[in-house]
Amino acid sequence: METRKVAVIGLGHVGAQTAYTLAVQGTAEELILVDQNEEKVTAQQRDLEDAAAFLPHRVRITVGKAADLGPCDVIINSVGDISLTHQSRDRAVESRFTSPAVKAIAAEIRETGFDGVLLNITNPCDLITWQLIRELDLPRGRVFGTGVGLDTARLTAGLSRRTGLSHSSVTAYMLGEHGKAQFAPWSCVRFGGKSLDDWAETESRFRFNRDKAEREAVDAAWVTMAGKGCTEYGIAATAARMVAAVLRDEKVILPVSCALCGEYGERDVVAGVPAVIGRDGAEQVVELPLTDGEKARFRACCGEIRQSMSGLNM
Ligand SMILES: NC(=O)c1ccc[n+]([C@@H]2O[C@H](COP(=O)([O-])OP(=O)(O)OC[C@H]3O[C@@H](n4cnc5c(N)ncnc54)[C@H](O)[C@@H]3O)[C@@H](O)[C@H]2O)c1
Q1: Is the backbone peptide bond immediately before 139 cis, with ω within 30 degrees of 0?
Q2: Active-site residue 178, yes or no?
Q3: pLDDT tens digits, 75-105
Q4: Is residue 120 within 8 Å of 128, Cβ to Cβ?
Q5: Among 13, 57, 86, 178, which one carries the catalytic annotation?
Q6: Residues with CB under 6 A from ligand 1
Q7: What is the mean pLDDT of residues 159-186?
Q8: Can you say how many angstroms the Cα of residue 101 is from the centroid of all Cα atoms in its chain?
Q9: What's this model's pTM, rounded to 2 decimal places?
Q10: What number does the ligand 1 atom closest to the CA of 13 have?
């Protein structure tokens, strides 16, 4: 019998909630928590262990160091400093802290011979994912980011609210940057296999303001941030879904942030796209049949991401 081991690095709002979600869902038998703040990570471990006493399955939760993570199946990176997000919406501000922090962590992980899957949450998500891909040098797809995964959940929730249909009947994606340039390719939206345009021809509830729905998905993080000072449940559920897809080798298509090697006409860049998620991470990028206008918006996103990459000398 195999023990599925998952590590979470950075036990702040996001990392702690992700660990809790994984524990409650019984996704892994062993969770290893890593944080530079020893008092905080010990407290998170104890709190999670208290919760685990009431779970119907066994989960072992320990505190560790990056150097211990070689045998993990999945490592989740969620290091950060939330005070920077409170200071500015400009992701470049956060990257000045997260990029060097992640570089040091990646060097330690590389030393361990880790050859599992690394899921990055830390922002700017596309940039930091790219940095981890470069630093870890694992086979293609093994490092990917939550990227547009959470943004897509927000879009889908909005579409469900507007149409009254369950989110599970909606196929829709936010694409491109996990940031302000991301967009919804409306030509690819389906409800039960029928296109949004076809539904809109006959039913008024499908004739909503598309720009507004897209804007709501982009701005949702800031609404949550303004009201409660952090975002946690949505991103934790997004990350836990991706980890489960890897551990169960599900081959499910999920929107993520991953490296492009010619798909959508782009290479040497990480961007938000749907991909097949399985044991080897983001195993295949799914190329959607975008309209010319949507292709132009995707190119613009990649341009934004490249510009930020050059700002970090990556
Ligand atoms: N991708 C997404 O959709 C998404 C959504 C929400 C938050 N985030 C990002 O997740 C990150 C974490 O957010 P948060 O709200 O949990 O922040 P937080 O400040 O609450 O927690 C960050 C944790 O990281 C730890 N840490 C910092 N540097 C470290 C290092 N070098 N080694 C080990 N631990 C380290 C801190 O001690 C802290 O416990 C941020 O970058 C945030 O922007 C991403």
Answers
A1: no
A2: yes
A3: 999 999 999 988 877 878 899 999 999 999 9
A4: yes
A5: 178
A6: 9-15, 34-37, 40, 78-82, 85, 94, 98, 101, 105, 121-123, 125, 146, 150, 178, 230-231, 235
A7: 97
A8: 19
A9: 0.97
A10: 16
